[in-house]
Amino acid sequence: MHSEVVASRSADQRDLRESRNGNPHLDAVSLAIIEQLQEDGRRPYAAIGKAVGLSEAAVRQRVQKLLDQGVMQIVAVTDPLTVGFRRQAMVGVNVQGDVEAVADALTDMSEVEYVVMTAGSFDILAEIVCEDDDHLLDVINKRIRTMPGVRSTESFVYLKLKKQTYMWGTR
Q1: Would you say 16 and 24 are in contact if contact means Cβ atoms under 8 Å apart?
Q2: I need a labelling partner for 150 at 20 to 30 A (CA). Which of 6, 60, 85, 101 fits?
Q3: Given this model, what pLDDT does residue 9 score?
Q4: How far apart are CA 28 and CA 18, in angstroms?
């Protein structure tokens, strides 16, 4: 038991180091834990430990560090249609001036689920989830287009959600 605790502490210390780009360094064990949780976010720590070769306590500590470092989140992902959100759209935003200020303002909006600053035709892409078309129109017309720095928008309304997965984490 003592050697497992020492090995776990040593691995945890390696896991805390930052890589050259300032992001947390993830070793093979942390990546394996993330894969286990991506398959089932409710998987017991004991089962994860068995799969990755650590004790339940060591897995619990690793998961907490990954959460604290912002490496991952454990959340329930819903189908928007089943919980009353009938309209989704990706909105391309062109900005004049400070792109980050507009991205920050979009991030603060409850209807905006995803914000990415891009290179190309748009400065920002924002995914919006609304209750209906009237709600979407209100968000785009009265809240996004009136933001300081927003030059133009282009909306891509979703007709059908074909794939929604969050399994990219460790490949």
Answers
A1: yes
A2: 85
A3: 45
A4: 15
Q: What is the pLDDT of residues 85-133, one digit of tens each?
A: 789 999 999 999 999 999 999 999 999 999 999 999 999 999 999 999 9
Cβ neighbour number for residue 124 with a 10 Å cutoff:
21
Q: What is the pLDDT of residues 45-54, one digit of tens each?
A: 999 999 999 9
Question: DSSP string spanning the chain?
Answer: -HHHHHHHHHHHHHHHSB-TTSSBP--HHHHHHHHHHHH-TT--HHHHHHHHT--HHHHHHHHHHHHHTTS--------GGGGT--EEEEEEEEESS-HHHHHHHHHT-TTEEEEEE-SSS-SEEEEEEESSHHHHHHIIIIIITTSTTEEEEEEEE-S---------TT-
Amino acid identity at 6? V
pLDDT above 90: residue 79:
no
Comparing CA positions, the residue from 142, 124, 126 lying closest to residue 134 is: 142
